[in-house]
Amino acid sequence: MRHKDSFDTQRRNLLRLGAYGGVYGLLAPFMGGFAFAREMLAENRILVVLELSGGNDGLNTVVPFRNDDYYKLRPKLALKENTLRKIDDDYGFNTHMAGLEKLYKDGRMAIIHGVGYPQPSFSHFNSMAFWHTAAPNSGEPYGWVGRLADVLLPKGTPHAIVNVDATQSLAVRSRHHVPVVFDDPTRFSPKGSPFEAEFADSGEAQNASQSFLRDIARSAKEASAKVGEAWEKYNSSIDYGLVNLDLPKIASLIEARMPTRLYYTSFRNNAFDTHVSQSNLHSRLLTYFSDAVYAFIQDMERIGRADDVMVLVFSEFGRRAAENANLGTDHGTANVMFALGNGVKGGHFGTPSNLVELDETDNLIHTTDFRQVIASVIEDWLQYPNAQDVLNGKYDKLGIIS
Questions:
Q1: Predicted pLDDT at 346
Q2: Is residue 278 scored above 60 in pLDDT?
Q3: Which of 133, 227, 356, 385 has the greatest number of beta carbons closer than 10 A?
Q4: Mind spelling out the 3-state secondary structure of the chain?
Q5: Res 5 pLDDT > 70
């Protein structure tokens, strides 16, 4: 199935390029053929961002079972070597991560170690805001996904961003685009003032403000119709497990050829805030997460879009290196991130944080700035040439895209 779907996707892309053949023939002397093809194929590429809210414990997710210091820090919470899903000689996944183990061993998962940022916050609210904006301690009003849309896509591009949640995330807040935000696709309808429908159906606007409101209303009305229609037609045999993390909703829109390039969803409600009795709870959470992401990648294979879609996974911080007295872990710093998909270069990236050389708060010292990961995604996956336009600074890329 994977090889067939990959071939079909490539064939469709080549046919699409063929439609431009006449124009390309005229322009070829003035442009690089490979650069042109790359730009055309990049237009199909989609980024799905998945947030693990609450602060996932990276050390008990990607377990350094060869490191004795891990077991010294966590005499009761450390996962024993013989219970792990080993992915190489040094690391193993939590035993409940069967789906991600398959993706990793298939070369479709990058693990990025030691991810964080300078002067980290231990507040869920503050740290999440820093991650959402990719601008720690700055007060930046727009999210990095929103700013990415502003530079990646023309102003007014319909449905540029989709955020599946009960409320809009700061991450998708944009200066020039209005994100499509919904929770239940069967009940999704434009919300706002009672005269929005009038604006949506009205003719000439009388002034700039009225024109702005009319355009927003029309976009919302059109989006609600497209989301409802896509969800009604979606019929997948893929099993997403007990908690699907809203990924089937995203799959339905991708299958329906929604023009969206940027999707954002989350494992909600601070689920990973495991201060007390972490072991069983964390294992269940990782089961849901692993099953859902693996199923989503399978679903992309089913619809022939696996080569076009990448999933980026983060949590607002890691957990403290040592276990606490309640058999849990407290708010920490450096963590792991994941990138998944056919276009990802599988393996380990970044330098794991040293488990002995901790900071003054006895927390892990980050070795990879999370904006390095975002810069890699912006330039190498989405093929936007200058991540500085989004991140307001230059960050070394990691080579996570194949």
A1: 98
A2: yes
A3: 227
A4: CHHHHHHHHHHHHHHHHHHCHHHHHHHHHHCCHHHHHHHHHHCCCEEEEEEECCCCCHHHCEECCCCHHHHHHCCCCCCCHHHCEECCCCCEECCCCHHHHHHHHCCCEEEEEEEECCCCCCCHHHHHHHHHHCCCCCCCCCCHHHHHHHHHCCCCCCCCEEEECCCCCHHHCCCCCCCEEECCCCCCCCCCCCCHHHHHHCCCCCCHHHHHHHHHHHHHHHHHHHHHHHHHHCCCCCCCCCCCCCHHHHHHHHHCCCCCCEEEEEECCCCCCCCCCHHHHHHHHHHHHHHHHHHHHHHHHHCCCCCCEEEEEECCCCECCCCCCCCCCCECCCEEEEEECCCECCEEECCCCCCCCCCCCCCCCCCEEHHHHHHHHHHHHCCCCCCHHHHCCCCCCCCCEC
A5: no
- pLDDT at residue 329 greater than cutoff 80: yes
At 46, the amino acid letter reads: I
Q: What value does the mean pLDDT of the chain take?
A: 89
- The amino acid that residue 370 corresponds to is F
Q: What is the pLDDT of residue 204?
A: 63
Query: Which residues share a beta bridge with 264?
Result: 49, 163
Cβ-count burial of 324 within 10 angstroms (0-12 exposed, 13-18 middle, 19+ buried)? Answer: middle
Residues 6+ apart with CB under 8 A from 147: 174, 175, 389, 390
Q: Please give the Cα distance from 372 to 364 (Å, whole number).
A: 18
Per-residue HEC secondary structure of 92-153 comes to: EECCCCHHHHHHHHCCCEEEEEEEECCCCCCCHHHHHHHHHHCCCCCCCCCCHHHHHHHHHC
What is the tens place of the pLDDT at every residue in 338-381?
999 999 999 999 999 999 999 999 999 999 999 999 999 999 99
Range of weakest confidence among 198-212, 285-299, 368-382 = 198-212
pTM, full prediction: 0.88
Q: Could you tell me which of 226, 225, 223, 202 has the C-alpha nearest to residue 213?
A: 202
